[in-house]
Here is the input.
Amino acid sequence: QLQLQESGPGLVKPSETLSLTCTVSGGSISSSDYYWGWIRQPPGKGLEWIASIYYNGNTYYKMSLKSRVTISADTSKNQFSLELRSVTAADTAVYYCARVVYEVSGPYYDHWGQGSLVTVSS
Amino acid sequence: DIQMTQSPSSLSASVADRVTITCRASQTISRYLNWYQQRPGKAPKLLIYGASTLQSGVPSRFSGSGSGTDFTLTISSPQPEDFATYYCQQSYSAPWTFGQGTKVEIK
Here is the structure.
């Protein structure tokens, strides 16, 4: 059974870099069948897609965050990671990693991690 | 970016009521529309993709319909575990965007 697990610091200082890793078990991030992505949810608010990565290394970013975000993958560890630089309080959120399935009927997130709360505060 | 607007933002329903949630896209998205359920403190869970295809393991009391710009999620007879927040999400064009959510509470 596929499982995704986020890990990383729960507290980051303003202007510093938020770094999170998603460890995937029960499936391979090297599969050409799937993309892998990060989505965040500020406390009490809705969901926002941040970035995605494909097995061949192709990356996709939300334009408004692109200058501050990097998504990468380590296939040897079956992990993918998110870096968000120059964070502010507005980046405080629960960060989820998820798997993206592409079908004829369109892509969708079918498996999610449990989420990792990251608070930006001095 | 395509804007997704859900209505209502919240509703109260009794077990066995019929619940209907509407999602409207700011431009046509064909049938590239997904629905997720999120219980408090939990990750979203996929319910429906492609506007009307039920994800494996999701009870048949959930159904989705629509195309173009207007979509509906229906819960035919909500059970206690269905009281949660529901989000629509378009996957027609990047960035994939979500609606603001509809909270379904017990009356």
Summary: The interface with chain A takes residues 31-34, 36, 42-46, 49-51, 53, 55, 87, 89, 91-92, 94-101 of chain B (CB under 8 Å). Chain B has no helices and eleven strands. The radius of gyration of chain B is 13 Å. Chain B has a mean pLDDT of 96.
